[in-house]
Design brief:
- The structure is a single chain.
- The protein is of the alpha/beta class and 521 residues long.
- The protein has 3 domains: 83 residues, Glutaredoxin, CATH 3.40.30.10; 261 residues, Rossmann fold; 37 residues.
- It contains 15 helices and 19 strands.
- The strands form 5 sheets. The protein has an 8-stranded mixed sheet with strand order 6-5-7-8-19-18-15-12, with helices on both faces. Strands 2-1-3-4 form a 4-stranded mixed sheet.
- Helix 9 links the parallel strand 5 and strand 6.
């Protein structure tokens, strides 16, 4: 009877140790209750050893016990060797990409940029547990393996709001490259290898890109309080968080666009520009300048309009009326823009824009050296109203043959090759490329509407497109579609026979040989 109780104690003790040990390993930590369970198992096993000490002593001094202990020692030795090998391979990983298109390998351009890193760069990926891009995490881990100066850190934005606030991150799916020693950082929302590598190129430069906003013609203020609905202070703050330096400029006083200007932004001009400014803009265009012009309706700017006409853009003197806007809490003068044309700025863009107080435009492609692209158009429920008197009285009615029928262009881009572009005002040949973005609304990016729907993304995409520099790289997206492995009949059989039949037979044969040898000894 005592032997049965002792055996039960021994088995129970071992089971408790094994059970709670496995639970602790699965949960990833030794909690109080798992430690208590294992301790109870050890105590019960100890009680068995004390109560049946003679049999335990007799067993461990027997020939069978010696063989058993030797087996345990050899097993532990093999496990230790395997652990050491695993640690070595973990610290010195080698990745072999067997796909035909090398879809899981970094491009040569990226590797070259990483090899040239001199400062430590921290890459923070801000994610939500409900929306996590594991593909970009895998890509960033490859960056980290190529150069120890590149540090990848995954951040749950909900659990670490202080880190998100530090970099002014207000949405998921953002990568921030932080130059640790210099304190500067670059925010990236194009989660591709091309986007990350171009961000690396930008942040490794000591010189920030400068965006000059014109003033002196009633433009929105960059320094207005955030509660001033028509101000641009929120846009300025957002641009600075993307590592741009934002300044204002009175172009009529300067007489020339500064040489360090990456983008000249003319937003919501309420009075026409002067002749001196026209000449400064003409010179900047021939120098390969980048310009953004955002209009407001019911304002006459003939000199600016004529300058744009010389590069193929015709600005309509109208205001967009869209009855769909009333369904979203606005009025008929806040059109909802969801019709986008194919372009780098709108690539993958699926979010509508709130485009208040907008006017329309069209582009002519009959000018040598000039090409244009429409970016966004109005929907079928809107039109271009030309009766401003009626609008001021609160009356909006479509008049066929007078008002402009939808769809109408409200945003577009002009690209100019100054080698072949020879306007009347300057027929000289210059090897430069100019980009001009024309936006039919200036209010859609003010303090009130900047964060509405896709407005912020649209203006940031536009600025990013214009601010691209000559050393930015272009990496063709890799096809990550499924590539099945086709096996021949013989190969398929070998894959079955070797692990399922041959290897177990070898292990069984070795065991039989060892057994026979011991029996003969």
């Amino acid at each position: 009877m005592n032997n049965k109780i002792n055996n039960i104690l021994f088995i129970s003790g071992l089971l408790l140790i094994l059970l709670f040990g496995i639970i602790a390993l699965i949960r990833g930590e030794f909690e109080m209750w798992t430690v208590a369970g294992m301790a109870a198992g050890i105590v019960i096993t100890g009680v068995y050893v004390i109560s049946d000490w003679q049999n335990v002593k007799k067993y461990f001094t027997s020939k069978t016990a010696r063989y058993g202990i030797n087996s345990i020692v050899y097993s532990l030795l093999v496990i230790a060797i395997l652990v050491v090998v695993q640690v070595i391979f973990t610290l010195n990983t080698i990745q072999i990409d067997l796909t035909k298109q090398k879809k899981y390998s970094l491009s040569d351009q990226t590797i070259k940029v990483l090899q040239g890193l001199k400062d430590t760069i921290e890459a923070y990926y801000f994610y939500s547990v409900k929306a996590r891009n594991t593909q970009i995490e895998d890509t960033l881990k490859q960056y980290e393996k190529k150069n120890a100066k590149f540090k990848f850190i995954s951040v749950d934005a909900d659990k670490n709001p202080s880190v998100a606030k530090r970099f002014n991150v207000d949405r998921y799916g953002i990568v921030v490259l932080n130059k640790k020693d210099k304190g500067s950082f670059e925010k990236i929302d194009q989660l591709t290898e091309e986007g990350i590598t171009n961000g690396l190129i930008r942040i490794t430069k000591d010189k920030k890109k400068k965006i000059y906003f014109t003033k002196g013609h009633g433009e929105p203020s960059l320094d207005a309080p955030k509660n001033e609905k028509n101000g641009y202070s929120a846009l300025k703050e957002e641009l600075e968080s993307y590592n741009y330096e934002v300044k204002d400029i009175e172009l009529f006083n300067e007489g020339k666009v500064p040489d360090d200007c990456s983008i000249l932004f003319m937003a919501g001009i309420q009075t026409d520009i002067f002749d001196r400014e026209v000449k400064a803009l003409q010179d900047y265009i021939k120098r390969g300048g980048k310009i953004i012009i955002s209009y407001i309706p019911m304002v006459s700017t003939p000199k600016l309009d004529n300058l744009l006409k010389s590069v193929g853009a015709i600005i309509h003197n109208d205001i967009v009326v869209d009855k769909l806007g009333t369904m979203f809490g606005g009025d008929v003068l806040m059109p909802i823009i969801s019709n986008f044309d194919q372009h780098e700025i709108t690539k993958g863009f699926r979010v509508a824009l709130f485009f208040p107080m907008a006017r329309t435009m069209e582009f002519k492609d009959n000018i040598t050296g000039v090409s244009s692209n429409s970016l966004a158009k109005t929907n079928t429920t809107s039109w271009g109203e030309v009766d401003f008197a009626g609008i001021k009285k609160g009356v909006a009615k479509y008049d066929a043959g007078v008002d402009k029928q939808s769809p109408l262009i409200v945003a577009g881009v002009i690209n100019i090759n100054n080698e072949t572009f020879k306007p009347d005002w300057d027929a000289t040949t210059k090897i430069t490329q100019t980009k001009i973005a024309i936006l039919g609304s200036s209010e859609f990016i003010n303090n009130t509407f900047l964060s509405a729907s896709g407005n912020k993304d649209f203006i940031l995409n536009t600025i990013s497109y214009l601010a691209e520099e000559g050393d930015m790289i272009s990496i063709r997206p890799k096809d990550r579609s499924f590539e099945p492995v086709f096996l021949s009949k013989i190969t398929g059989r070998m894959l079955f026979l070797i692990p399922i039949i041959i290897l177990p037979l070898i292990v069984l044969g070795i065991g039989v040989m060892v057994f026979i040898k011991r029996r003969m000894a």
